[in-house]
Amino acid sequence: MLDIRTQPESIVSQNKHTSDAIRLDGYSLELSDVEDIKFRDAKVAICQRLTKEKAFEPSCALLKEQLDAGRVIYGVNTLFGGLANQEAIDPMELQRELLLSHMAGAGEALEDQDVKLALILRANSLCHGVSAIRENIVDRYLQLANRDILPLVQQYGSIGASGDLIPLSAIAGAVTGQSGDFKLKVDGHYHPAPEILEKLDLPAIALKPKEGLALINGTSVLTAIAANNCLKMSYLFNLHMILQVAVAEILNCDMRPFSEFIQRHRPHPGQKWVAARLRDMLASSSMVRDINQVERDFAEDDLIQDRYSVRCMPQFLGAIVEDLTGINRTVTVEMNSATDNPLIDVEAGEFLHGGNFLGQHVAMSMDKMRVSIALLAKHNEAQIATLVEPAFSRGLSASLVADTDIGQSVGVKPLQILSNSLTPLLEQNANPLTTHFPVHGEQFNQNINSQGFGSAQLTRKSVDIFTKQTACMSLIVCHAMQLKAAQLDKPVAELFSVSSCQLLAGLTKLTNEHDEEKGFIIGKASSGKFSEWLEHIAKGVEDRTLGNFEDIFDVGTTL
User: Fold this and answer.
1) Alpha-helical regions (H) of 283-408
2) Residue 235 falls in the annotated catalytic set
3) Residue 109: is its pLDDT beyond 80?
4) Which of 74, 141, 156, 190 is catalytic?
């Protein structure tokens, strides 16, 4: 696991996994489990211990007992939010009306992977057994998720205050079959939920007091989007490190800035971690310089030390990896939290009104992730600018035009322009959303709100743009590697590190140039292929087929 903690805390329960499913207990879901669900189609079920102990029943029983005793309980025999001073006429019908009234989303459908994970995270949250909801409803969520039968959830409608009320209502209404206005997706098409449930021999579920509120009060949708963002960024950060190693080799870096001694005297954990990875990855390279070579180059008017984008990698990337690590931890905590209101303390016999549904932690984490993405893109931009300029590239041609194409090709100039167009979008997107919440939200009741749903989606947009910029960077770097090898009249494999060679091999496959030994050279012969290549590479990043990096990092787990 890619983790800079020396003694990581663990709340992982024993025997969480069985041979056939990831078992939810409300406390121990990890991003690695999300990775298994996404890439290996792992199935999910309620922990057998919870079922055996009938852990969902006590809160339901206490709710009934308190209602029979005449207690006033928010959202059960009262209305909601700014209307909570009104008594509910029919507590049973109120739960159905709650779902129907919040069927108010707008925009395009959310991505399937986000909706599927939202179903699972809502179920996991309810496994705390503090929300007065029946086990069969929680199990229904997992049945549909495991079959990839997913509700229609739209991209607009949540302020992340009382959780994701509108998106979670779309899920709850569809899963329980409240009306034909709620939709379920089967084979790529949406149909009225009751029709699909009937075909699956799953009857509609009449909600009991509080169950509708338990289903829609929470952060499960924004957290699902955030968790998928975390997985993608774990991989993208690893790929960024590999690209930076290749750049350091192309520019014949001085290894001394990555020394353990330097990091020991400024011991930020991320800085130490990055420097150690750089030392390990560059150990197999013949392209780096020792102090004698640096001094010989200085005698020929070269700089005595590398430019910042290479020399300061531990400091620059170290700060980013610390932020990404913290974001992953925060999202993991949120995935394993009960975010309903009120929560039921069975032992004390109390209903506790609180604010666990406020998505502030995840919202701020997503704002922070967009800053990290913009910084990584700027790092790429600095390196591209260095590689294409002969004054800085240590002997490479202008715009990396191959010798055979001088006077006929513009080299990687269009790719640099593409990167130049993407990076400002990421910079603009790095502005925080959490500071823009409306203080008048919902009758001044939700007068602080996280905007976590929007922030998570903005971050997903940044991840997608950064994926495209990384594809662009990959083409430029691999082309530069081959130009450098041609200058030295040696094969790439004799000069460059294992990770850089793996990168080139993976990229060669994705661009449909099957001679991995020869690779590919960007020039006149490649005219018209850039868009196609970039699409293939971006897809390779998305499905993790760009090289075999698991030998370098445990890709996709918590940073």
Assistant:
1) 291-298, 308-311, 313-335, 360-387
2) no
3) yes
4) 74
